[in-house]
Amino acid sequence: MMARYARYGLILFLSSLAFIAVSLPARELAGGRLPLHYPLDTVSLTADQNIVVTGYLDGNADALLVVRIDDTSSSDYASRYNLEQTIVPGRFELTIQLRGLRTTGGALLNLDGLTQLIVFAPDNAASFSEVEIHLSAAPQLPGSAVGYSLGPADAPLFPGFTAVSPDSPLIAAGQVVPIQRPGTDPLVTSGFKGIERLVLPWPEGETVDVHLWTEDVGAWEHLPHPLERRIRVNGETALEYRLGFEEWLAERYLRGKRQEASPAGNPWHDIARHRGGHVNVTTTAGTDGIEITLAGDSPDATYLSAVMLAPAGDRAALDFVEDQRARRIRAAWPVIEPAPVRSADAVVPLSPGHARPEKTSIAAASARNGATRLSLDLHSDKPVELVGWQITGGPPDLSAYAWAALRTLDRPAANASALQLQQTRLVADPKGLPVTPDQPRRVELWLHPKPDTTAGSYPLHLTVESTSGETRIPITLLIDNVDLPAPRAPVGFYLDEAPHLTWSGQDPARRTKQLRCDLEFMATLGLSALAPGISTPRADDDAQVIAELAMAFNEAPAVMAYTPAKRLIGETGLAVAAERLAGITHLASQKGLSPIYWSVADEPSNPDQSTSDLTALLEVFRRDAPEVKLAAHLNAPQDKALAYLFDLVLINDGYGMSPQNVRNLQRNGQSVWLYNATQPRLTAGVGVLATQADAYVQWHSRMPTADPFDPMDGREGDVMMMLPGHEICPSQPDIHTALLDMAEGVLDQRWILYLARKNQGEETDLTWKIWEKLQQSWQSRLQEDKTDLPFTYKQK
C-alpha cells in the first residue's frame, strides 16, 4: 500500500511541476529589425528552456532566416549551431530547444558556455519585421497525464515529457541501445531498441489509456524492418504481427508511394502524422502500475520511442501531443509556392459513358533514331477514378510508355528546409487515381520508334478507362527522315542498387538483376551509365566488381566509381587500398572495359569536410599505384587550388560551370564532368556543348532516406529517379520526371549537332547563339559571395 501511495505521490509531483512550468512567463531577450545580436553570457540558461523567435516576413516571397548560436568552443560554421529556416510570408514562430542543442558538426553545445545568439537574413532584400527573441519554458501535458521520452541522455525532449535515459530504474529488463535520429519531431526521433520490460507508475486499480510510439523512423538509407513484433501492456496486446519481408515491403516501405498531398499541402496531415507507429491500449493499473513488455525477431523489434499515460477516455493529452507535433512540423517545413509544371501539349476531357473517339488529333514528331515526349492533362466535369490505359497502333516495334503524375509534397532541393507541391512522381499504373473538376491528372508519354523505322505519319491511340467510361485519344506520330548524331558528351545519373535489396537476408542476385534493368531502361532513354553501382573491391571479390563494370561498358565511354575507393580506404588504409584498386584497374583494362575513375574527394570545402588527408592520399596513390585514375567532386571557388591534383574533376555551379573554367582544366590534361546542375535539361543539351565538358552526371538514381516517401526524415531529402517498387524489373518502372527531362536534354544536344552539321558544320556558332539566349536560365543559381553577409555567414 505504501508503494501505491509513493507512485501516486510521484504523479502529483510531476503534475505540480507542469503547473509551475506553465506559469513561468516568457522572457524577452531581444527585439527589433534584423540582424539581432544577443550576448548569451549575460543570462543563465538550462536544458528545459526554449529559445523562441517570432516575427513577420513582409511581401509575397519566401526567404531564408538564420539563427546562429555560439559557445566558447565555436570558431567556424561547423562548430556552432546554425538553423537555416525557410520562412513564408506572414507571421512565423521558431522554437529552439536548448536540451540536446548541437553544432553543425554534431558536437553538443555547452549550455554553461554559450556566448552569443544571432538572428539574420542572408538575403538583405528580405523584409523581416517585429522580430523578437524570447526565452521560455516548454508547455506541459494537461491534467494528470504523464509522458515518458526514451533515448540518449542528451536527446531533445518533447514538451511535457520526462526523459528516460538508458540507466533509468523504470527499465526492468533488456539490453537497451539508445537511438537518435535526425528530424524536427523529438517525440519519434529518439528511443531505445533492446528494451524488453518497462514499468511505469500509475495508481493501482485505475483505468488508464496507454499510448506508445513504437517505430524507429530510420536514417540514411536504412529503415529498420522487424518482421515479428509483440508489445503487451499489463497482458493486453497493443501490437502484434508476423510478416514476410515482401509483406513488410508492401505494407510499410511502400505505403506512402501513392499517397497524394491535400490540395494546399499540409506536411502534418499528409505525411508526419503517419510517422512513429502510434498505438494505444486501455488497461487497469496493477500493483506495479503499468508493465510494458516487448519481444520479436531482433533488437529492432523491441524498439520504443515514447509512452504517455492518461486517464481512460480523456483525449486532452493526446490532442496536446498531436497539436505540438503539428506546430513543430509546420514551422520547420513551410509549404512554398508550387513547383512550375511544364505546359500540357493537349488537354483531354474524359468521356462520360462510352463516347466516340475525339476527332481532334494530337501531333508529335521524332527523328528516325530519336524519341519524343508528350504531356497531357486529363479533365473531368465530375469526380472519377482512373482504371487503366493502353497504347495501341503507331509504327512497328514502337516503344511507348505512359505514366500518371502524383501530386506530392517534396523538398524543392535535397537540402531545402521547405516543402513544395510537385507533380514529379510518375507511376505506370493509374488505377484508383482521381480526376476531379478542379484537379486534372497529368499524363506523361514517351514514344521511342525503332531506329530503322520508315519516315512517315503513324496514327496511334491512348485509350483511357475510368469509372465514367472509356476515352480513346488519337495521336499522330510523325517520323522525320532524319538520323541524329550520337551525343558529343554522354549524360547520365549516379546509379546504385535499390537500398532495400541490399539489406541483410536479401538475395544478392535480385539486387544485381534490378541494377541491370535500371541500366537497360536508362539506356533506352539515351542516358549513359557514367556512375554505375560498384561494390567495394575487397580481396577475392574481383569477379563481382568486374561484372558490375561490364554491365555499364556498352553505355559509357568512361566510368566514375563514386563510393568504392572511399569505402575501401576506410576499411583497409591507403596502402592496401592503392594495391587493390591498381589490381582492379589492370584487370578491367585487360578485359577492354571503360576507363575507371575512382572518386576520393567529395566536396572537400564543405564545413563538415577536410582537405588535410588529401595530401597523404595522393602521395600514396601517385607513388604506389600511378595507373589508378583519381576523381574529385568540387563545389566551391576555393577548390580551384585542388583541381589540378586529380585525373577527373567534377564541377557544379558552386565551383563555376563556365566554359573558361572547363577549358582551363582541360588544357592541363584533365577530364571535366559537370554534376548536379540546377537545370538538368539545359545542361544535358546546351550546357555540355557550350562548356565542352566531357560528360554530365546528376545524382541520384536511387537515394531514398529511410522512408522513401517521407521527405522530412533525413539530413537530406530523397533523390530518386527510379522509384522503389515491390516487383523486381517491372516492364515499366515508376520514375521521377527529371529522368524524362534529362532524356529530352540529350535529344536537344543531338538536334543541335544535327542542325549545325546540316548548316555547313557551323556547330560552334549555332551552339553559342543558343547559349547566349539560355545561359542565364541555365545558371539560375549564381554563386553568391557570402563574405559580406552579417556575421560572416558560413565563414570562419
In short:
The chain is of the alpha+beta class and 796 residues long. 22% of the residues lie in helices and 32% in strands. The protein folds into four domains: 26-138, Jelly Rolls, CATH 2.60.120; 141-328, Jelly Rolls; 346-480, Immunoglobulin-like; 491-787, TIM Barrel, CATH 3.20.20.
Name its key features:
13 helices, Jelly Rolls, seven-stranded mixed β-sheet, disordered C terminus, 796 residues, seven-stranded parallel β-sheet, Immunoglobulin-like, 22% helix, alpha+beta
Largest sheet descriptor: 7 strands, mixed
Count of discrete structural domains: 4
Instruction: List low-confidence stretches.
Output: 1-24, 781-796
Say what the CATH topology of the largest domain is: TIM Barrel
Q: What fraction of residues sit in β-strands?
A: 25-35%
Question: What is the tally of beta strands?
Answer: 40
